[in-house]
Amino acid sequence: MLTDIEIAQGTTLRPVSEIATELGIQEDELELYGKYKAKINESAFARLADQPDGKLILVTAINPTPAGEGKTTTTAGLGEAMAKIGKKAIIALREPSLGPVFGVKGGAAGGGYAQVLPMEDINLHFTGDMHAITSANNLCCAMLDNHMQQGNPLGIDPRRILIKRCLDMNDRALRNIVVGLGGKINGVPREDGFIITVASEVMAILCLAKDMEDLKKRLGNILIAYTYGGTPVYARDIKAEGAMAALLRDAVNPNLVQTIEGTPAIMHGGPFANIAHGCNSVRATRLALKLADYCITEAGFGSDLGAEKFMDIKCRMAQLNPSCVVVVATVRALKYNGGVAKAELAQENVEALKKGSVNLKAHVENMQKFGVPVVVAINRFGTDTDAELQVIDDCCKELGVSYALSEVFGKGGEGGKELAETICRVIQENEGKTQFAPIYSDVLPIEKKIQAVAEKIYGADGVIFTKQAQKSLQEIKALGGDSMPVCIAKTQYSLSDDPALLGRPSGFQITIRDLKLSSGAGFVVAYAGDIMTMPGLPKVPAAEKIDVDESAVIHGLF
User: Against a cut of 0.90, is the pTM above it?
Assistant: First the structure.
Protein backbone atom coordinates (compact mmCIF):
# COMPACT_ATOMS: atom_id res chain seq x y z
CA MET A 1 0.00 0.00 0.00
CA LEU A 2 1.38 3.38 -1.01
CA THR A 3 1.94 6.07 1.61
CA ASP A 4 0.44 9.53 1.27
CA ILE A 5 3.73 11.03 0.14
CA GLU A 6 4.30 8.24 -2.40
CA ILE A 7 0.84 8.85 -3.87
CA ALA A 8 1.54 12.58 -3.97
CA GLN A 9 4.96 12.18 -5.58
CA GLY A 10 3.47 9.87 -8.21
CA THR A 11 0.91 12.47 -9.31
CA THR A 12 1.43 14.62 -12.40
CA LEU A 13 0.56 18.16 -11.37
CA ARG A 14 -1.10 20.69 -13.63
CA PRO A 15 0.50 24.14 -13.92
CA VAL A 16 -1.25 26.36 -11.39
CA SER A 17 -1.79 28.95 -14.14
CA GLU A 18 -4.18 26.46 -15.81
CA ILE A 19 -6.15 26.09 -12.57
CA ALA A 20 -6.35 29.87 -12.30
CA THR A 21 -7.52 30.32 -15.89
CA GLU A 22 -10.35 27.81 -15.39
CA LEU A 23 -11.46 29.79 -12.33
CA GLY A 24 -11.50 33.03 -14.30
CA ILE A 25 -8.48 34.52 -12.54
CA GLN A 26 -6.61 36.91 -14.83
CA GLU A 27 -2.88 36.72 -15.48
CA ASP A 28 -2.05 39.98 -13.70
CA GLU A 29 -3.97 38.78 -10.62
CA LEU A 30 -1.69 35.79 -10.18
CA GLU A 31 1.75 35.87 -8.54
CA LEU A 32 3.56 32.61 -9.28
CA TYR A 33 5.71 30.77 -6.74
CA GLY A 34 7.14 28.29 -9.23
CA LYS A 35 4.88 26.16 -11.48
CA TYR A 36 2.49 24.75 -8.91
CA LYS A 37 1.89 27.46 -6.29
CA ALA A 38 0.65 31.01 -6.63
CA LYS A 39 -0.80 33.90 -4.69
CA ILE A 40 -3.91 35.78 -5.79
CA ASN A 41 -3.47 39.51 -5.35
CA GLU A 42 -5.74 42.38 -4.37
CA SER A 43 -6.75 43.24 -7.94
CA ALA A 44 -8.78 40.01 -8.13
CA PHE A 45 -10.76 41.04 -5.04
CA ALA A 46 -11.53 44.43 -6.55
CA ARG A 47 -12.63 42.99 -9.90
CA LEU A 48 -14.84 40.30 -8.34
CA ALA A 49 -16.42 42.47 -5.63
CA ASP A 50 -19.83 42.65 -7.32
CA GLN A 51 -20.00 38.95 -8.23
CA PRO A 52 -22.72 36.97 -6.41
CA ASP A 53 -21.53 34.58 -3.71
CA GLY A 54 -21.64 30.82 -4.05
CA LYS A 55 -22.82 28.43 -1.33
CA LEU A 56 -20.65 28.07 1.78
CA ILE A 57 -20.15 24.54 3.12
CA LEU A 58 -18.35 23.94 6.42
CA VAL A 59 -16.68 20.60 7.11
CA THR A 60 -16.22 19.75 10.80
CA ALA A 61 -16.00 16.55 12.83
CA ILE A 62 -16.54 14.70 16.07
CA ASN A 63 -13.86 15.00 18.77
CA PRO A 64 -10.52 13.72 17.44
CA THR A 65 -9.30 10.30 18.56
CA PRO A 66 -6.18 8.19 17.86
CA ALA A 67 -8.37 6.30 15.37
CA GLY A 68 -8.51 9.33 13.07
CA GLU A 69 -11.52 11.05 11.48
CA GLY A 70 -10.21 12.45 8.17
CA LYS A 71 -11.72 15.94 8.13
CA THR A 72 -9.17 17.50 5.76
CA THR A 73 -9.16 14.34 3.63
CA THR A 74 -12.95 14.57 3.37
CA THR A 75 -12.74 18.26 2.42
CA ALA A 76 -10.18 17.60 -0.33
CA GLY A 77 -12.15 14.60 -1.59
CA LEU A 78 -15.37 16.58 -1.58
CA GLY A 79 -13.76 19.19 -3.82
CA GLU A 80 -12.77 16.41 -6.21
CA ALA A 81 -16.22 14.81 -6.01
CA MET A 82 -18.00 18.08 -6.81
CA ALA A 83 -16.08 18.20 -10.08
CA LYS A 84 -17.13 14.60 -10.78
CA ILE A 85 -20.82 15.55 -10.55
CA GLY A 86 -20.37 18.69 -12.66
CA LYS A 87 -20.29 21.34 -9.94
CA LYS A 88 -17.88 24.28 -9.83
CA ALA A 89 -16.35 24.18 -6.37
CA ILE A 90 -13.25 25.37 -4.52
CA ILE A 91 -11.94 24.06 -1.24
CA ALA A 92 -10.58 26.63 1.22
CA LEU A 93 -8.19 25.18 3.81
CA ARG A 94 -5.75 26.31 6.48
CA GLU A 95 -2.02 26.06 6.01
CA PRO A 96 -0.29 23.39 8.14
CA SER A 97 1.92 24.35 11.07
CA LEU A 98 5.41 22.87 11.33
CA GLY A 99 4.68 21.98 14.97
CA PRO A 100 2.26 19.11 14.23
CA VAL A 101 4.12 18.16 11.03
CA PHE A 102 7.20 17.26 13.06
CA GLY A 103 5.22 16.34 16.18
CA VAL A 104 2.21 14.03 16.57
CA LYS A 105 -0.22 14.62 13.68
CA GLY A 106 2.12 14.77 10.72
CA GLY A 107 1.06 16.74 7.65
CA ALA A 108 -2.26 18.49 7.13
CA ALA A 109 -2.89 18.32 3.41
CA GLY A 110 -5.33 15.40 3.36
CA GLY A 111 -4.46 11.80 2.66
CA GLY A 112 -4.58 8.95 0.17
CA TYR A 113 -6.20 10.07 -3.09
CA ALA A 114 -7.79 13.12 -1.49
CA GLN A 115 -4.76 15.34 -0.95
CA VAL A 116 -3.78 18.92 -1.71
CA LEU A 117 -0.52 19.26 -3.65
CA PRO A 118 2.40 19.87 -3.71
CA MET A 119 2.12 18.31 -0.24
CA GLU A 120 5.83 18.57 0.65
CA ASP A 121 5.83 22.32 -0.01
CA ILE A 122 2.49 22.86 1.73
CA ASN A 123 3.58 20.96 4.84
CA LEU A 124 6.96 22.69 5.08
CA HIS A 125 7.70 26.27 3.99
CA PHE A 126 4.95 26.70 1.34
CA THR A 127 4.93 30.39 0.26
CA GLY A 128 6.49 31.71 3.47
CA ASP A 129 3.31 32.93 5.19
CA MET A 130 4.18 31.28 8.52
CA HIS A 131 7.64 32.84 8.51
CA ALA A 132 6.20 36.28 7.73
CA ILE A 133 3.73 36.02 10.61
CA THR A 134 6.47 34.86 12.96
CA SER A 135 8.72 37.73 11.89
CA ALA A 136 5.98 40.36 12.25
CA ASN A 137 5.12 39.17 15.75
CA ASN A 138 8.75 39.04 16.85
CA LEU A 139 9.51 42.45 15.34
CA CYS A 140 6.86 43.92 17.64
CA CYS A 141 8.48 42.16 20.61
CA ALA A 142 11.93 43.44 19.61
CA MET A 143 10.64 47.01 19.25
CA LEU A 144 8.96 46.80 22.65
CA ASP A 145 12.16 45.62 24.35
CA ASN A 146 14.13 48.28 22.48
CA HIS A 147 11.68 50.95 23.67
CA MET A 148 12.42 50.00 27.27
CA GLN A 149 16.16 49.84 26.59
CA GLN A 150 16.18 53.30 25.01
CA GLY A 151 14.84 55.16 28.04
CA ASN A 152 11.28 53.74 28.18
CA PRO A 153 9.49 57.07 27.50
CA LEU A 154 6.05 55.41 27.82
CA GLY A 155 6.93 53.97 31.22
CA ILE A 156 6.17 50.36 30.22
CA ASP A 157 6.15 48.00 33.22
CA PRO A 158 8.35 44.98 32.32
CA ARG A 159 6.27 42.88 34.72
CA ARG A 160 3.10 43.57 32.70
CA ILE A 161 4.09 42.74 29.14
CA LEU A 162 1.35 40.75 27.43
CA ILE A 163 2.74 39.90 23.99
CA LYS A 164 5.04 36.89 23.69
CA ARG A 165 7.49 35.90 21.03
CA CYS A 166 6.46 33.06 18.73
CA LEU A 167 7.94 30.17 16.78
CA ASP A 168 6.23 27.78 14.37
CA MET A 169 7.57 24.70 16.10
CA ASN A 170 6.68 22.60 19.14
CA ASP A 171 9.34 23.61 21.70
CA ARG A 172 8.29 23.29 25.34
CA ALA A 173 11.67 24.57 26.58
CA LEU A 174 10.72 28.06 25.34
CA ARG A 175 7.41 28.35 27.20
CA ASN A 176 8.99 30.33 30.03
CA ILE A 177 12.32 32.12 29.61
CA VAL A 178 14.23 35.15 30.87
CA VAL A 179 15.53 37.74 28.38
CA GLY A 180 17.88 40.70 28.70
CA LEU A 181 20.55 38.92 30.74
CA GLY A 182 24.23 39.80 30.40
CA GLY A 183 24.43 43.40 31.48
CA LYS A 184 22.95 46.76 30.51
CA ILE A 185 23.95 46.52 26.84
CA ASN A 186 21.72 43.45 26.35
CA GLY A 187 18.44 45.04 27.40
CA VAL A 188 16.11 45.09 30.39
CA PRO A 189 15.95 41.69 32.14
CA ARG A 190 12.42 40.32 32.35
CA GLU A 191 10.41 37.13 32.18
CA ASP A 192 9.26 36.22 28.69
CA GLY A 193 8.13 33.18 26.74
CA PHE A 194 7.23 31.79 23.34
CA ILE A 195 3.91 30.63 21.93
CA ILE A 196 3.50 28.68 18.71
CA THR A 197 2.99 30.97 15.69
CA VAL A 198 -0.47 29.60 14.92
CA ALA A 199 -1.65 30.71 18.39
CA SER A 200 -0.40 34.27 17.93
CA GLU A 201 -2.69 37.25 17.61
CA VAL A 202 -0.88 38.21 14.41
CA MET A 203 -2.05 34.92 12.88
CA ALA A 204 -5.62 35.61 13.99
CA ILE A 205 -5.43 39.11 12.56
CA LEU A 206 -4.17 37.88 9.19
CA CYS A 207 -7.10 35.45 9.05
CA LEU A 208 -9.76 38.00 9.99
CA ALA A 209 -8.53 41.10 8.12
CA LYS A 210 -10.53 42.30 5.11
CA ASP A 211 -7.62 43.97 3.33
CA MET A 212 -4.25 45.62 3.93
CA GLU A 213 -5.77 48.73 5.50
CA ASP A 214 -7.79 46.64 7.93
CA LEU A 215 -4.75 44.45 8.63
CA LYS A 216 -2.59 47.43 9.56
CA LYS A 217 -5.29 48.90 11.79
CA ARG A 218 -5.73 45.59 13.61
CA LEU A 219 -1.97 45.21 14.09
CA GLY A 220 -1.84 48.65 15.67
CA ASN A 221 -4.65 47.63 18.04
CA ILE A 222 -2.71 44.72 19.60
CA LEU A 223 -2.57 45.24 23.37
CA ILE A 224 1.09 44.58 24.18
CA ALA A 225 1.65 45.86 27.73
CA TYR A 226 0.66 48.18 30.56
CA THR A 227 2.59 51.14 31.96
CA TYR A 228 3.63 51.49 35.60
CA GLY A 229 0.53 53.64 36.02
CA GLY A 230 -1.79 50.97 34.58
CA THR A 231 -2.34 52.60 31.18
CA PRO A 232 -2.69 50.10 28.30
CA VAL A 233 0.01 50.16 25.61
CA TYR A 234 -0.81 49.13 22.05
CA ALA A 235 1.47 48.21 19.14
CA ARG A 236 0.64 51.56 17.53
CA ASP A 237 2.06 53.35 20.60
CA ILE A 238 5.55 52.04 19.77
CA LYS A 239 4.94 52.65 16.03
CA ALA A 240 5.24 48.96 15.14
CA GLU A 241 2.19 48.40 12.93
CA GLY A 242 3.62 49.81 9.69
CA ALA A 243 6.72 47.61 9.66
CA MET A 244 4.69 44.61 10.77
CA ALA A 245 2.29 45.16 7.87
CA ALA A 246 5.23 45.47 5.49
CA LEU A 247 6.40 42.02 6.53
CA LEU A 248 2.89 40.70 5.85
CA ARG A 249 2.44 42.44 2.48
CA ASP A 250 2.60 39.18 0.51
CA ALA A 251 1.31 36.90 3.28
CA VAL A 252 -2.07 38.67 3.28
CA ASN A 253 -2.82 37.26 -0.19
CA PRO A 254 -4.37 33.74 -0.43
CA ASN A 255 -2.46 30.81 -1.95
CA LEU A 256 -3.77 28.82 -4.92
CA VAL A 257 -2.85 25.13 -5.28
CA GLN A 258 -4.64 21.95 -6.42
CA THR A 259 -5.89 18.54 -5.31
CA ILE A 260 -4.54 15.26 -6.65
CA GLU A 261 -7.26 15.37 -9.30
CA GLY A 262 -6.37 18.91 -10.38
CA THR A 263 -9.33 20.66 -8.76
CA PRO A 264 -8.71 24.09 -7.19
CA ALA A 265 -7.72 24.64 -3.58
CA ILE A 266 -7.06 27.90 -1.74
CA MET A 267 -4.92 27.57 1.41
CA HIS A 268 -4.40 30.55 3.65
CA GLY A 269 -3.76 31.08 7.34
CA GLY A 270 -3.50 28.38 9.95
CA PRO A 271 -4.71 29.14 13.50
CA PHE A 272 -5.14 26.09 15.75
CA ALA A 273 -8.70 25.52 16.94
CA ASN A 274 -7.84 24.37 20.46
CA ILE A 275 -5.81 27.51 21.30
CA ALA A 276 -6.98 29.94 18.60
CA HIS A 277 -10.03 30.37 16.34
CA GLY A 278 -9.23 27.50 13.99
CA CYS A 279 -10.37 28.83 10.59
CA ASN A 280 -8.68 29.76 7.34
CA SER A 281 -8.64 33.42 6.32
CA VAL A 282 -11.73 35.51 5.64
CA ARG A 283 -10.02 36.73 2.46
CA ALA A 284 -9.59 33.19 1.15
CA THR A 285 -13.18 32.24 1.92
CA ARG A 286 -14.60 35.42 0.39
CA LEU A 287 -12.52 34.93 -2.75
CA ALA A 288 -13.58 31.30 -3.10
CA LEU A 289 -17.25 32.33 -2.78
CA LYS A 290 -16.79 34.74 -5.70
CA LEU A 291 -14.93 32.27 -7.91
CA ALA A 292 -17.16 29.19 -7.60
CA ASP A 293 -20.70 27.99 -6.97
CA TYR A 294 -19.59 26.13 -3.85
CA CYS A 295 -16.89 27.04 -1.34
CA ILE A 296 -16.00 24.06 0.88
CA THR A 297 -14.02 25.05 3.94
CA GLU A 298 -13.03 23.31 7.18
CA ALA A 299 -12.51 24.30 10.80
CA GLY A 300 -10.05 22.64 13.16
CA PHE A 301 -10.72 19.70 15.50
CA GLY A 302 -14.31 18.88 16.56
CA SER A 303 -17.37 21.07 16.13
CA ASP A 304 -17.09 22.19 19.77
CA LEU A 305 -13.90 24.07 18.84
CA GLY A 306 -13.32 25.04 15.21
CA ALA A 307 -16.91 24.99 14.01
CA GLU A 308 -18.23 26.95 17.00
CA LYS A 309 -15.55 29.60 16.41
CA PHE A 310 -16.25 29.57 12.67
CA MET A 311 -19.89 30.39 13.42
CA ASP A 312 -19.48 32.71 16.40
CA ILE A 313 -16.31 34.56 15.38
CA LYS A 314 -15.56 34.26 11.66
CA CYS A 315 -19.12 34.30 10.29
CA ARG A 316 -20.13 37.04 12.75
CA MET A 317 -17.21 39.31 11.81
CA ALA A 318 -17.25 38.64 8.07
CA GLN A 319 -21.07 38.40 7.76
CA LEU A 320 -20.89 34.96 6.19
CA ASN A 321 -23.92 32.68 5.95
CA PRO A 322 -23.14 28.95 5.71
CA SER A 323 -25.53 26.83 3.66
CA CYS A 324 -24.60 23.43 5.08
CA VAL A 325 -22.43 21.81 7.76
CA VAL A 326 -20.80 18.42 7.19
CA VAL A 327 -19.93 16.46 10.35
CA VAL A 328 -17.25 13.85 9.67
CA ALA A 329 -17.03 10.68 11.74
CA THR A 330 -15.71 7.14 11.49
CA VAL A 331 -17.08 3.92 12.93
CA ARG A 332 -13.65 3.33 14.48
CA ALA A 333 -13.55 6.70 16.24
CA LEU A 334 -17.06 6.26 17.61
CA LYS A 335 -16.15 2.82 18.97
CA TYR A 336 -13.15 4.46 20.66
CA ASN A 337 -15.58 6.93 22.25
CA GLY A 338 -17.52 3.87 23.38
CA GLY A 339 -14.53 2.54 25.30
CA VAL A 340 -12.79 0.24 22.79
CA ALA A 341 -8.98 0.22 22.91
CA LYS A 342 -7.17 1.43 19.77
CA ALA A 343 -5.72 -2.03 19.09
CA GLU A 344 -9.23 -3.58 18.98
CA LEU A 345 -11.01 -1.03 16.79
CA ALA A 346 -10.92 -3.26 13.68
CA GLN A 347 -13.17 -5.83 15.41
CA GLU A 348 -16.95 -5.52 15.17
CA ASN A 349 -18.45 -4.10 18.36
CA VAL A 350 -22.00 -2.88 17.87
CA GLU A 351 -22.63 -2.17 21.55
CA ALA A 352 -19.54 0.02 21.89
CA LEU A 353 -20.52 1.83 18.71
CA LYS A 354 -24.00 2.53 20.10
CA LYS A 355 -22.41 3.84 23.30
CA GLY A 356 -19.90 6.02 21.43
CA SER A 357 -22.42 7.37 18.93
CA VAL A 358 -23.57 9.85 21.60
CA ASN A 359 -20.51 11.90 20.61
CA LEU A 360 -21.76 12.11 17.02
CA LYS A 361 -25.23 13.06 18.26
CA ALA A 362 -23.77 15.87 20.37
CA HIS A 363 -21.88 17.37 17.45
CA VAL A 364 -24.82 17.13 15.04
CA GLU A 365 -27.21 18.68 17.57
CA ASN A 366 -24.68 21.44 18.30
CA MET A 367 -24.49 22.40 14.65
CA GLN A 368 -28.27 22.34 14.29
CA LYS A 369 -28.45 24.99 17.03
CA PHE A 370 -26.92 27.48 14.56
CA GLY A 371 -29.88 27.07 12.21
CA VAL A 372 -27.88 25.42 9.41
CA PRO A 373 -28.74 22.04 7.80
CA VAL A 374 -26.36 19.20 8.68
CA VAL A 375 -25.07 16.23 6.70
CA VAL A 376 -23.09 13.41 8.32
CA ALA A 377 -20.13 12.00 6.39
CA ILE A 378 -18.93 8.57 7.46
CA ASN A 379 -15.32 8.17 6.41
CA ARG A 380 -15.49 4.45 5.61
CA PHE A 381 -12.87 1.87 6.54
CA GLY A 382 -12.66 -1.68 5.14
CA THR A 383 -13.26 -3.09 8.62
CA ASP A 384 -16.67 -1.41 8.99
CA THR A 385 -19.40 -4.07 9.05
CA ASP A 386 -22.99 -3.88 7.83
CA ALA A 387 -24.25 -4.18 11.40
CA GLU A 388 -22.09 -1.23 12.48
CA LEU A 389 -23.16 0.91 9.52
CA GLN A 390 -26.78 0.16 10.43
CA VAL A 391 -26.11 1.75 13.84
CA ILE A 392 -24.98 4.91 12.04
CA ASP A 393 -28.04 4.79 9.80
CA ASP A 394 -30.34 4.49 12.81
CA CYS A 395 -28.50 7.29 14.64
CA CYS A 396 -28.85 9.70 11.70
CA LYS A 397 -32.53 8.87 11.23
CA GLU A 398 -33.09 9.60 14.91
CA LEU A 399 -31.35 12.97 14.46
CA GLY A 400 -33.30 13.73 11.28
CA VAL A 401 -30.21 14.30 9.16
CA SER A 402 -28.95 12.87 5.89
CA TYR A 403 -25.71 10.95 5.78
CA ALA A 404 -23.43 9.46 3.18
CA LEU A 405 -20.50 7.08 3.14
CA SER A 406 -17.23 8.58 1.97
CA GLU A 407 -14.37 6.60 0.43
CA VAL A 408 -12.31 9.48 -0.89
CA PHE A 409 -9.11 8.30 0.81
CA GLY A 410 -8.93 5.20 -1.41
CA LYS A 411 -10.97 6.33 -4.43
CA GLY A 412 -10.55 10.11 -4.65
CA GLY A 413 -13.46 12.08 -6.08
CA GLU A 414 -15.25 8.94 -7.27
CA GLY A 415 -15.50 7.80 -3.66
CA GLY A 416 -17.14 11.07 -2.62
CA LYS A 417 -19.88 11.39 -5.22
CA GLU A 418 -22.62 10.14 -2.89
CA LEU A 419 -21.57 12.71 -0.27
CA ALA A 420 -21.37 15.55 -2.82
CA GLU A 421 -24.80 14.73 -4.23
CA THR A 422 -26.30 14.50 -0.73
CA ILE A 423 -24.89 17.90 0.25
CA CYS A 424 -26.14 19.56 -2.95
CA ARG A 425 -29.59 18.04 -2.43
CA VAL A 426 -29.78 19.19 1.21
CA ILE A 427 -28.70 22.72 0.24
CA GLN A 428 -31.32 22.86 -2.51
CA GLU A 429 -34.08 21.54 -0.21
CA ASN A 430 -33.24 24.22 2.37
CA GLU A 431 -32.87 27.10 -0.08
CA GLY A 432 -34.44 30.16 1.53
CA LYS A 433 -35.20 28.27 4.77
CA THR A 434 -31.79 28.41 6.46
CA GLN A 435 -31.84 30.77 9.45
CA PHE A 436 -28.20 31.00 10.50
CA ALA A 437 -27.51 32.76 13.81
CA PRO A 438 -24.57 32.68 16.25
CA ILE A 439 -25.07 30.90 19.56
CA TYR A 440 -24.91 34.11 21.62
CA SER A 441 -25.68 37.80 21.18
CA ASP A 442 -23.09 40.57 20.87
CA VAL A 443 -24.67 42.45 23.77
CA LEU A 444 -24.09 39.73 26.37
CA PRO A 445 -21.21 40.31 28.82
CA ILE A 446 -18.11 38.15 28.36
CA GLU A 447 -18.91 35.72 31.17
CA LYS A 448 -22.40 35.12 29.73
CA LYS A 449 -20.95 34.45 26.27
CA ILE A 450 -18.57 31.90 27.75
CA GLN A 451 -21.45 30.38 29.70
CA ALA A 452 -23.54 30.11 26.53
CA VAL A 453 -20.82 28.17 24.69
CA ALA A 454 -20.09 25.98 27.73
CA GLU A 455 -23.71 25.04 28.32
CA LYS A 456 -25.13 24.97 24.77
CA ILE A 457 -22.13 23.45 22.96
CA TYR A 458 -20.04 21.58 25.55
CA GLY A 459 -23.01 20.42 27.63
CA ALA A 460 -21.56 21.83 30.87
CA ASP A 461 -23.62 22.64 33.94
CA GLY A 462 -21.86 25.98 34.34
CA VAL A 463 -18.56 27.87 34.37
CA ILE A 464 -16.07 28.46 37.18
CA PHE A 465 -13.82 31.53 36.95
CA THR A 466 -10.61 31.40 38.99
CA LYS A 467 -9.43 34.50 40.87
CA GLN A 468 -6.93 35.20 38.10
CA ALA A 469 -9.69 34.91 35.49
CA GLN A 470 -11.92 37.29 37.46
CA LYS A 471 -9.11 39.83 37.67
CA SER A 472 -8.41 39.59 33.93
CA LEU A 473 -12.14 39.84 33.23
CA GLN A 474 -12.39 43.20 34.99
CA GLU A 475 -9.35 44.57 33.11
CA ILE A 476 -10.75 43.41 29.78
CA LYS A 477 -14.16 44.93 30.49
CA ALA A 478 -12.50 48.24 31.36
CA LEU A 479 -10.96 48.23 27.86
CA GLY A 480 -14.28 47.56 26.09
CA GLY A 481 -13.89 43.82 25.63
CA ASP A 482 -17.51 43.08 26.57
CA SER A 483 -18.59 43.80 22.99
CA MET A 484 -16.33 41.11 21.51
CA PRO A 485 -16.95 37.41 20.83
CA VAL A 486 -15.10 34.80 22.88
CA CYS A 487 -12.50 32.29 21.72
CA ILE A 488 -12.29 29.46 24.26
CA ALA A 489 -9.01 27.56 24.37
CA LYS A 490 -9.55 24.02 25.63
CA THR A 491 -8.67 20.39 24.96
CA GLN A 492 -9.78 19.02 21.60
CA TYR A 493 -10.22 15.46 22.89
CA SER A 494 -13.39 15.98 24.89
CA LEU A 495 -16.51 18.13 24.86
CA SER A 496 -15.44 19.06 28.39
CA ASP A 497 -12.14 20.62 29.53
CA ASP A 498 -10.94 17.19 30.72
CA PRO A 499 -9.39 15.16 27.85
CA ALA A 500 -10.20 11.88 29.61
CA LEU A 501 -13.98 12.42 29.43
CA LEU A 502 -14.99 10.82 26.11
CA GLY A 503 -18.41 10.30 24.54
CA ARG A 504 -20.91 12.90 25.74
CA PRO A 505 -19.93 13.81 29.31
CA SER A 506 -22.44 15.34 31.72
CA GLY A 507 -22.43 16.71 35.23
CA PHE A 508 -19.30 18.81 34.77
CA GLN A 509 -18.33 22.46 34.87
CA ILE A 510 -15.82 24.33 32.71
CA THR A 511 -13.02 26.08 34.61
CA ILE A 512 -11.67 29.30 33.07
CA ARG A 513 -8.23 29.92 34.59
CA ASP A 514 -7.42 33.16 32.73
CA LEU A 515 -8.53 35.47 29.91
CA LYS A 516 -6.66 37.57 27.37
CA LEU A 517 -7.87 40.48 25.27
CA SER A 518 -6.93 40.05 21.61
CA SER A 519 -7.97 43.59 20.75
CA GLY A 520 -6.43 43.51 17.28
CA ALA A 521 -8.14 40.27 16.31
CA GLY A 522 -11.33 41.49 17.95
CA PHE A 523 -12.05 38.68 20.40
CA VAL A 524 -11.39 37.61 23.99
CA VAL A 525 -9.45 34.40 24.57
CA ALA A 526 -10.58 32.31 27.56
CA TYR A 527 -8.21 29.58 28.73
CA ALA A 528 -9.96 26.45 30.02
CA GLY A 529 -8.14 23.69 31.92
CA ASP A 530 -4.42 23.28 31.36
CA ILE A 531 -4.32 24.01 27.61
CA MET A 532 -0.84 25.08 26.43
CA THR A 533 -0.15 27.81 23.87
CA MET A 534 3.26 26.26 23.10
CA PRO A 535 2.89 22.50 22.53
CA GLY A 536 5.72 20.03 23.13
CA LEU A 537 7.02 17.19 20.99
CA PRO A 538 5.91 13.61 21.82
CA LYS A 539 8.25 10.83 22.98
CA VAL A 540 8.69 9.71 19.37
CA PRO A 541 8.18 12.81 17.17
CA ALA A 542 7.23 12.42 13.52
CA ALA A 543 10.47 14.27 12.70
CA GLU A 544 12.45 11.08 13.44
CA LYS A 545 10.93 9.42 10.35
CA ILE A 546 11.38 12.33 7.95
CA ASP A 547 14.43 12.35 5.69
CA VAL A 548 15.69 13.62 2.33
CA ASP A 549 17.78 11.51 -0.07
CA GLU A 550 20.72 12.40 -2.30
CA SER A 551 18.30 13.50 -5.05
CA ALA A 552 16.61 15.94 -2.60
CA VAL A 553 13.44 13.80 -2.52
CA ILE A 554 11.68 13.95 0.85
CA HIS A 555 10.60 10.69 2.53
CA GLY A 556 8.56 9.93 5.65
CA LEU A 557 6.33 13.01 5.45
CA PHE A 558 2.70 11.93 5.74
Answer: yes
